[in-house]
Amino acid sequence: GNGNPNTLLLGMTATPRRSDGRSAVDVFDEVAFEISRTDLQDLAYLVPIHYYTVDTELGLDRVKMSGGDFQIKALSVVMNLPAVRALTIR
């Protein structure tokens, strides 16, 4: 194009590995800096993650997918069922 050949492009992402198997890193010539979540926790920039799992016995295999991810509307129908909400609130 007509752009300045000396222009530098800076790209930043918190999620370089995508669910569709493609990598955001492949868009750029080189990675200038990266740091892991665990390193950020060790340096006290992030707090440790505490999470709990709830067995809802849901069959997500019937939820429609798009681009390697669940379709939001289809997933919200399943996740907003009264039985599911009761389990997650408990």
TrEMBL record:
Organism of this sequence: marine sediment metagenome
The protein's name in its UniProt record: Uncharacterized protein
Lineage: unclassified sequences, metagenomes, ecological metagenomes
